[in-house]
Amino acid sequence: MPAQNTPTSFGLVTRTFHWLTALLILTAIPLGLIANGIETGPETIARKAQLFSLHKTLGVAAFLLGLTRILWALTQARPVPLHPQRRAEMTLAELVHWMLYLSLVMVPLTGWVHHAAVEGFAPILWPFGQGLPFVPKSEPLAALSGGAHWVFTKLLALSVILHIAGALKHHLIDRDATLARMAFGTAAPETPLPHRQRLAPLGLALLLYGAGTGLALSMAPQTAPATAPATTAAPTVAGGNWQVETGNLGFTVVQMGAPVTGSFASWTADITYDEAVTSGKAGQVVVEIDLASLALGSVSDQAKGPEFLDVAAHPVARFTADLLAGPEGLVAEGKLALHGAEKPVRLPFTLTIEGDLARMTGTARLDRRDFTIGAGYGDEETVGFAVDVAVSLDATRK
Ligand code: HEM
Ligand code: HEM
Predict the structure, then answer these.
(1) pTM of the predicted model as reported, rounded to 2 decimal places
(2) By alpha-carbon position, which residue is closest to atom 42 of ligand 2?
(3) Is a pLDDT exceeding 70 seen at residue 95?
(4) Which ligand is nearest to the CA of 114?
(5) How far apart are CA 119 and CA 260, in angstroms?
């Protein structure tokens, strides 16, 4: 049994590639549909994420296998068509084959770009990282690639249906060797016409993919996302002797085993600080955070919803603290009122002051259970307990 294609048969390698890809694609499609259809809630989220993780992992495997398969196909002879005189049928078959080849690249690639551009949710089950080179975390990019993934999966599904229908038609109605050739490597009888590569079916496939891309572009939101990117968040300030100019207030939480970072676009800090004090209370701070301004990638709405922050009932979080200087450095020590609870919080920070410009960065670890956030998620399987808060800001002396 030859490993390579011959003028009349598909070799073992081509057939192995074909059926492995078919298996992966025909599993990834229902997994994507089922996972997407599961409502998000405490009882279902773990299952939804597991199915999505499986979907993405099989999808990435299909992508890598598909690329190898395409490279292999480039080195191989295409076996002769069985019915070279049936021009329309051949054109349709070739169009569908090109659609399938294009889909093998574009469907998983758009899924992967979407995954890499968005924060959080179900990880790919492998140790090689979750991002993609040159793909930044970006909501517009995530929306565009998600839309393209959706459109392209429809083109793929249509092509697969036509492809399988064609194979069955050959097998059951024409009773020819088309299916046996791909299934068992059976050699077809020689036909007088060798296989000639025609460009029209490829052109048509590219046109259809172009139309799909146009549709995805028209579906993508035209306006910028409501929340500003974290780095440009410029909190205004109500009082104190320091004016915050720019800042970033965010946190990282482990979700499904992978860290997810979010940030608040709208918050204010009222800072009084006297750098001459080197021991004891050197000032105080009141930080007010508009919780509705949270951006947390694909799970922003869920984080703000009733299961977690419940911003409708508790729109603001308030951190009221003394700024204490001591031999171990500076610390903001006070109380955080969040989600209807008030708990002590210590936030060590570093500060550099040059003239009238102050730069501070600080971190604190909270436990979401102290604030009964995500009470329905009693273990760490879906969302970790620890929430690492990070704040950095530039302030000028008033
Ligand atoms: C149960 C499902 C499937 C069946 C029964 C099937 C059957 C076949 C058969 C009989 C051929 C040979 C056609 C010929 O001789 O001209 C073929 C070729 C091909 N199949 Fe499938 N297939 C299936 C699923 C898939 C899937 C999911 C893909 C997705 C990418 C796919 C991609 C291709 C491609 C690209 C070719 C052309 C190979 C070439 O000539 O380069 N097939 N398939
Ligand atoms: C050949 C491989 C793949 C196939 C056949 C496929 C197919 C699908 C299908 C059918 C859906 C459901 C669309 C709907 O609801 O109508 C879907 C959704 C999704 N897929 Fe894939 N997919 C593949 C690869 C990937 C990869 C590699 C990733 C990420 C690494 C991925 C991420 C996603 C995501 C995140 C969704 C949900 C999109 C949303 O909520 O907007 N997929 N996929």
Answers:
(1) 0.75
(2) 111
(3) yes
(4) 2
(5) 6
